[in-house]
Backbone:
């Protein structure tokens, strides 16, 4: 399926995924709070998205697959236990965690001060990056180069705000109602560049490699963390050690290469927010 059709079908996919998530309610509740308890139980239960590829999607058998699922598999292997992937959605991620249906969320979960009030985050294990994307043949090295480049964005999106902040006055910025139509404008040649995330970049290069699309300017990076219940400090501390290990030995970069087509850049530090005590 093309990326354009995939994006357009996400509304229908959300209904299917809601059913998958609901079926997970029948799963035995997770009660583990420490790595030792998980080892004793013999199973790690991880909440993952299935509607946001390539971070979280499904394979040919409609099973969870993607960057996050691969990280979860490495974590279960490191603990020496079986892995159970539990489909979650954006809205029900935190409820599933707080009601003990999963041990941890590895679900493209941006670390924000609002979420930090409800959950305990690990250090970042991935980033969601917003870029100016364009063909390799188009020379764009700095914001000043955008002045004569037509750029598509989803109206009022993160990328719209970010590009508007750096682009020279008069830059031909074309705003569309959503990512799908902004993307189609790039694919059809109506615009020369697009403001979009690394998830769009990965799927573009998969479905339309002939376009030779690459990131030109990095606009914003969102640090994603694993999420735990506030009381599960031992598990969060283990996760930090685990993340450092798989970043250091190259395993995390292999996963990034597999799903995004590029090696992993150095992970950002834990975000600091106003009022943090740590």
Residues:
């Amino acid at each position: 399926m093309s990326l354009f059709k995939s994006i357009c079908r996400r509304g229908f996919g959300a209904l299917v995924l809601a059913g998958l998530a609901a079926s997970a309610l029948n799963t035995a509740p997770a009660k583990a709070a420490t790595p030792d308890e998980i080892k004793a139980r013999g199973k790690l239960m991880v909440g993952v998205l299935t509607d946001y590829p390539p971070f979280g999607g499904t394979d040919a058998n409609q099973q969870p697959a993607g960057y996050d699922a691969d990280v979860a598999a490495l974590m279960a292997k490191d603990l020496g236990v079986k892995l159970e992937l539990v489909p979650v959605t954006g809205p029900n991620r935190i409820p599933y965690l707080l009601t003990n249906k999963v041990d941890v969320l590895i679900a493209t979960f941006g670390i924000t001060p609002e979420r930090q009030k409800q959950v305990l985050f690990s250090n970042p294990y991935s980033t969601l990056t917003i870029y100016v994307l364009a063909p390799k043949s188009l020379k764009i090295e700095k914001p000043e180069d955008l002045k004569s480049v037509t750029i598509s964005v989803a109206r009022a999106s993160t990328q719209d705000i970010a590009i508007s902040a750096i682009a020279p006055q008069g830059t031909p910025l074309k705003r569309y109602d959503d990512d799908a139509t902004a993307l189609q404008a790039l694919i059809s040649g109506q615009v020369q560049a697009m403001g979009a995330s690394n998830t769009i970049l990965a799927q573009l290069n998969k479905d339309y490699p002939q376009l030779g699309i690459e990131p030109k300017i990095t606009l914003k990076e969102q640090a994603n963390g694993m999420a735990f219940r506030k009381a599960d400090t031992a598990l969060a501390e283990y996760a930090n050690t685990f993340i450092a290990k798989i970043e250091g030995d190259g395993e995390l970069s292999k996963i990034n290469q597999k799903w995004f087509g590029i090696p992993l850049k150095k992970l950002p530090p834990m975000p600091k927010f106003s009022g943090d005590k740590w």
